[in-house]
Amino acid sequence: MGAVEETAPESVSAEHPYVIITFRLLTLAQCLFWSASLRETDLRQCSRSLPKRNHFMLTNSGFSHVGLSTHQMDATIQFYQGVLGFPHVLEDLTHVQAGGTLRMVYFDVGDGQFMVFMEPKSVPGIPADYDTGINSALGVPRGMYHFAFKVASLDDLESRRRSLESQGIDVSATIDLRYAKAIFFFDPNGIQLEFCCQIRPFNESDLHQQSEVSVASSS
């Protein structure tokens, strides 16, 4: 299948007050601001063009990327590439027509999956001090929203823990989750991260587990 060459139909209109997108292909940063409306006839035409596939033919391929944001991109690059070892593989700077910029960086976390950080600067309507760690703004414990990276073995997990400690990162002891073992820490944006090693396959009993914990403060 060749690359898509069609431009946006005339009926697509950018309604967001900050950005009007007219490019043939959109970057992720540009898509963030694009609010389009389609006439009903266009929607019907789009649906007719979709391949008719039985839903049982669909396969799961994991994530393409996870989108996050930062107020300090350089520190984020240093952490994810310099500390965690995830290569910085793409960078894009989008100029917002109403003012300001949106800097976007991809980190390769393995298996064709990426973490994508976006850093807005002086963009109208985007607060300069919003919570990049997500949880505090929602008033929930700091680990409620978090991101876990897979490691292949317990030896790898321990090597990761020692590496983080040696670089001055505050990292937890190894936690036994019964089906996995994991370590927890935070990135410069206040996002809780985890390295996780699954130690056995899930089974039927995992659908009915119960446990008891104390809830950490959201501050």
SS summary, helix count: 5
CATH architecture of the domain at 135-201: Roll
User: What is the CATH top level name of the domain at 135-201?
Assistant: Alpha Beta
Average predicted confidence as pLDDT: 82
- Compressed to H and E, one letter per element, the order equals EHEHEHEEEHEHEEE
What does this protein look like?
With 219 residues, this protein is of the alpha+beta class. Among the domains are: 13-49, no CATH class; 135-201, Roll (2,3-Dihydroxybiphenyl 1,2-Dioxygenase, domain 1), CATH 3.10.180. The protein has helices at 28-33, 40-49, 73-83, 135-138, 154-166; strands at 13-14, 36-37, 65-69, 88-95, 101-110, 113-121, 146-150, 175-176, 180-186, 192-198. The strands form 3 sheets. Strands 3-6-5-4 form a 4-stranded mixed β-sheet. Strands 7-10-9-8 form a 4-stranded mixed β-sheet. Strands 1-2 form a two-stranded antiparallel sheet. Mean pLDDT is 82; it is low at 1-27 and 34-39.
Secondary-structure blueprint of this entry?
Blueprint: E1 13-14, H1 28-33, E2 36-37, H2 40-49, E3 65-69, H3 73-83, E4 88-95, E5 101-110, E6 113-121, H4 135-138, E7 146-150, H5 154-166, E8 175-176, E9 180-186, E10 192-198
